[in-house]
């Protein structure tokens, strides 16, 4: 079994909780309140900037030109998606950019930056993998069920689309290659990093759903 398949099996309960979460369900039905999506997209703009930084950290630490190129392309794509998708919704809903990261966004971005800076490239890759893989699976899940006239159609089409699908497959291959070279201890750390980021994906949606704010 591929290492990444083991990773996915391990997070199966987390993934199920994501699919049944009200945010994902209402996004799929097109009934998600605009304010909820606004909160999400504001936080996601902040998230994607740091996600891109985390990918650039991995690019800087890669040891082959091919791996460097892959990570810089992923880093660039994160910004391009941010521009294309977010600007659509920012102008559609007249959303103001937010500067404060709310708790889940704060936890997730700091976790990604710390892990990609201080841990091995293999562990860092495992930490960023859920950002790719969970979004592809959720995107496809929603795409198969959503009605055409869904206000969140641009979001759905981005993550269910071929371009995103291809980068996820590349990221999976990279992670499996790193895992082959890793010791059992490091593989266990990769699994832990993958699980933590998967859990933070759930929290990211949950924070938007409950409009979570700093209480103090
Ligand atoms: C929180 C989050 N995770 C993953 C993605 C997809 O890269 C995204 N846009 N936002």
UniProtKB/TrEMBL annotation:
Q: Is Hydrolase one of the keywords UniProt gives this record?
A: yes
Top class in the EC scheme? hydrolase
**InterPro entries given for it?**
Haem_Oase-like_multi-hlx (IPR016084), Thiaminase-2/PQQC (IPR004305), Thiaminase_II (IPR027574), Thiamine_Salvage_TenA (IPR050967)
Keywords on record: Hydrolase, Thiamine biosynthesis
A Gene Ontology cellular component where this protein is annotated is: cytosol
Its UniProt pathway annotation is:
Cofactor biosynthesis; thiamine diphosphate biosynthesis
The catalysed reaction is:
thiamine + H2O = 5-(2-hydroxyethyl)-4-methylthiazole + 4-amino-5-hydroxymethyl-2-methylpyrimidine + H(+); 4-amino-5-aminomethyl-2-methylpyrimidine + H2O = 4-amino-5-hydroxymethyl-2-methylpyrimidine + NH4(+)
Q: What is its EC number?
A: 3.5.99.2
PANTHER family per the record? BIFUNCTIONAL TH2 PROTEIN, SI:CH1073-67J19.1-RELATED
Q: What does this protein do?
A: Catalyzes an amino-pyrimidine hydrolysis reaction at the C5' of the pyrimidine moiety of thiamine compounds, a reaction that is part of a thiamine salvage pathway.
* Protein known as: Aminopyrimidine aminohydrolase
Q: What is the lineage of its organism?
A: Bacteria, Pseudomonadati, Bacteroidota, Cytophagia, Cytophagales
